[in-house]
Amino acid sequence: MGSSVSSKPSLPDSSARFRHHLPPNDLRRPLVNEISQQLVNGLALGAVYALIAIGYTMVYGVLRFINFAHGDVFMLGSFAGYYLAPRVAQWFPLPGWAGWTLVMVLSMVICAAIGILIELLAYRPLRDRPKLTVLITAIGVSLLIEYTCQHKAVFGASQKAFPDLLPAGVFKLGGLSFNTTQFVVLGVTVVLLAALTFIVKKTRIGMAMRAVSHNASAASLMGISNTFIISFTFGLGSALAGAGGILYGMTYTGIDPLMGVNVGLKAFVAAVLGGIGNLPGAALGGMVLGVVETFAGGMSGVSTYRDGIAFAILIIILIFKPTGLLGSKQIEKV
Amino acid sequence: MNPRLPLISAIAGSAALLALGLSGCKSGGGDTIKVGEFASLTGKEATFGTSSHEGTLLAIEEINAKGGVLGKKIELLTEDNQSKAGEPANIVNKLISRDGVVAILGEVASSRSLEAAPIAQAAGIPMISPASTNPKVTEVGDYIFRICFIDPFQGTVMANFATKTLKAGKVAILTDAKSDYSKGLAKYFKEQFAKNGGTLASELDYNGGDKDFKAQLTTIKGAGADAVFVPGYYNDVALIAIQAKELGLGVPLFGGDGWESENLLQVGKDAVEGNYFSTHCSPEDASPKMTAFVAAYKAKYNKTPDAMAALGYDSAYVLADAIQRAGTTEGAKLRDAIAATKDFEGVTGKFSLDAKRDAVKSAAILQIKDGKFRFLETIAP
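YS: structure for the whole thing
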């Protein structure tokens, strides 16, 4: 059989082979759709990681420690939305845009307050202690929040259904199905990141944050209140985590008191991947992680290892670029 | 329902107890028979643990109200394992070595029964699992029993259901890679489905507790399956159903007894409508045993029992029956008495224990309709 094919003139043979490699249009189309659908899924997941990763990176920027309780603030954001929604619905119809905006803003405010409170009660008394002490305290705070919230009198351990905040709309775009939530998640993330960049780069308080991050003692000599800046940073980061909590609840519907553990860990990885301390890096890291994880999750045979693959990529990137994708080299001062 | 009925039965019970109490008191060593129970009362599979515990407790109270066994009351010591790996081993160790229980009842989840079984086996204390369906559970040793069917049967039933009732030629499977139960069910489903001439559209995994299933569901949608077999637990299944609906998957989902929880309906709402699962029994069953059980359960807990509650109830009665027949609570004799259980008339049907210490009994298929579990058909072994 093989000899008869090779004896033929080359033109029809190569065209036959060409057809073999590129299936006809109607067969190729679903695959393209599937890939772009996975990209949309991945970006929506990555957007949430990005919002949380920024909180890790900002706190690291000013205090040089990892706030492990940050993932739990994200969880509290989701539950704030869960409990606020029925109350907000008394004034604004839910699902609806006005009600959604109010739930979102209130949850962000609540999370900001919780973040500031955590810093005030747990981290401020340890400000002059070794960083390791603060780090371990952060783990303690995280466990305290998780297990307190699992108690029956607080939220209870079982999974709850996140309320519908936005009118459900699935619209098709050439075989792709987008829903309102996915658009909103991406849109809100872009808006919040732009607002954050503006605050950090263009305002006086942002300049003060950068000054504290650069050299805390010099900043305080210049009349900047370090305490205020640190509180502000915690508030800002926690508000973003709160927004992430609402968006996550809207996308995946199931919320429970331990939801912050895995997502928080991933966001931390995203922050390291992008270069810890670097804001655009955290956003990029989140997106990369979300997309990679989604593609791995959709592949038969490797879907079990979706988390493993995400972490393997982190390791590979850190081998070649130890400061992360956008991180700059830190010079140790002696 | 007559509200005075429980009161009357309680009075009758205590009268019977008094009569027996006077004539009893033959064997020494404590005035109660201690039975240990480990269950997931909180955490991921909390509704299963709670249901089976409530069923077990109801049975023990009924048995005690009728005078207990061997003239002694049964004392149920219940411990919560928080649906966590590692906890069952600690708890069962404590129940056996510190509390000195004569038998262990539990668990629903196969992974956690598998953790406790070797401890009970080594200590020579019989253990009866109400609802762990993975075959490996009773393979641990001759002290380990179960009163439910096993996954090869459940997997076969669902494969035949997919072929005959759903008329599905191409099925996708979404398995919880963390759960022995889910993996076992998927395996036996695949074997029978292949025998029926069906093909697999795709085979994907998730990790129990995940919230994002869109990656897997997008692939399944692309593969063009007629139906999706999801042998997981209710928490994950609810989210899978919601996200499948969002992605416009548009084919039925079906699974096993891990679905049966009110939580599936509360979280999944209209997304779980029209989907199917196999389970042990249905409260809509008209048998006199079931009717009496549903009435007693409603009177005590003010809700309709599910299959886990019925199995918990049966597990306690099987144990009490065996203690009565053995005439002692000594481990080896009790083990032989449980193994000899034959044609036991339980709430979940009439069943016997086979040589592998598994119950041989029929399965029920339920469909979710108008926010309720509706009985569809019974499939005999």
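YS: worth flagging: The longest strand of chain B covers residues 32-39.
IM: good catch. Also Chain B has a mean pLDDT of 88.
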